[in-house]
Amino acid sequence: MTDPKIPVTEDELHAYVDNELPAERRGDVEAWLAARPEDAARVQSWRAMAEMLHARYDSVLDEPVPKRLELEQLSGPPRRWIYGAVAAALIAFVAGGGVGWIAHGAAATPSAFQSITSEALDAHRLYVVEVRHPVEVPGAERAHLQQWLTKRCGWDVRAPDLAAAGLKLVGGRLLPGSAGPASFMMYESASGERFTIYTAKSDAEATQMRFAAEGNESTLFWADDGVIYAVVSTGADRGRLTQIAQAIYDQMEKKGG
Questions:
Q1: Nearest partner of 149 among 185, 124, 113, judged by Cα
Q2: What gap in Å lies between CA 130 and CA 57, rounded to an integer?
Q3: What's the CA angle centered on 137, arms 133 and 140, to 5 degrees?
Q4: What 3-state DSSP class applies to 241?
């Protein structure tokens, strides 16, 4: 039995929204909310957000977790990609072309772009549906997030400021990539629209930005100074995605990123 005098915790409020709260504690939480309008309003906003996310992203919930995203892969050897299949897939994958600016230097090999953009799409699909645990480090800890990911990934990882585009940093996490650690960051609008940024090391120095679409997801990706960037959205039109990617690109350029 639980003691109804024990204060209700933040975790219990989230569990209540997710229908994961033990039955014997449910009455205590409902009494707590009835006496505290501010907490009740927060719970209602969480529930509304959860319903919106389910409506938008439930189509990917049943997809299996790609093996490349298993954390134990971080310490494993780089994977060997099948070049023939990759090259054939890339022809269709990058058919959308660039968005208007041409960078300098050497281009990444097709296999590098194919593997990293595929990883970016998989990560987006896996975490964009999460309500309680979409990230490891919350956006409120931006400085720590950047420092941690920079140290683990081996290049200067920055969380760009996308407030001008109506997006707030949700946070980020470390992921395994085909050639080592990769960084993953999530942004969200007031309406619940989510964008993710996936970055990974590559042999590329700089390439033009390219567009790709797969199912309901679309991606803009490019390489700069040995790092590939992939910005992914679900349902956003190409113009909106280009606006976000351009803002990220500009800030990375200014910071030497």
A1: 185
A2: 9
A3: 105
A4: helix
- In this predicted model, what pLDDT tens digit does every residue of 141-165 receive, in sequence order? 999 999 999 999 999 999 999 999 9
Those residues whose C-beta lies under 8 Å from the C-beta of residue 57, and which sit 6 or more positions away, are 128, 129, 234
* Cα distance between residue 209 and residue 42, in whole Å: 40
What is d(CA 36, CA 19) in angstroms, rounded to the nearest whole number? 20
Coarse DSSP helix, strand, coil percentages of the chain, rounded to the nearest 5 percent: 45, 20, 35
Buried b (16+ CB within 10 A) or exposed e, 122-155: bbbbbbbbebeebbebebeebeebbebbeeebeb
Report helix, strand or coil for 1.
Answer: coil
CB atoms within 10 A of CB 30: 14
Task: Give the residue carrying structure tokens 């990883």.
Answer: 119
- Strand pairing partners for 64? none
231 in helix, strand or coil? strand
DSSP state of 20: -
| Whether the Cβ atoms of residue 234 and residue 244 lie closer than 8 Å to each other | no
As given in the structure block, the two tokens for residue 213 are 């679409």
Q: In what order do the strands lie in the sheet with 210-214?
A: 137-138, 168-177, 180-188, 194-201, 227-234, 217-224, 210-214
d(CA 171, CA 185): 6
Start-to-end Cα distance in the chain: 55
SS (H, E, C) 87-142: HHHHHHHCCCCCCCCCCCCCCCCHHHHHHHHHHHHHHHHHHCCCCCCCCCEEHHHH
pLDDT tens sequence across 13-48: 878 887 788 888 888 888 888 888 888 887 877 777
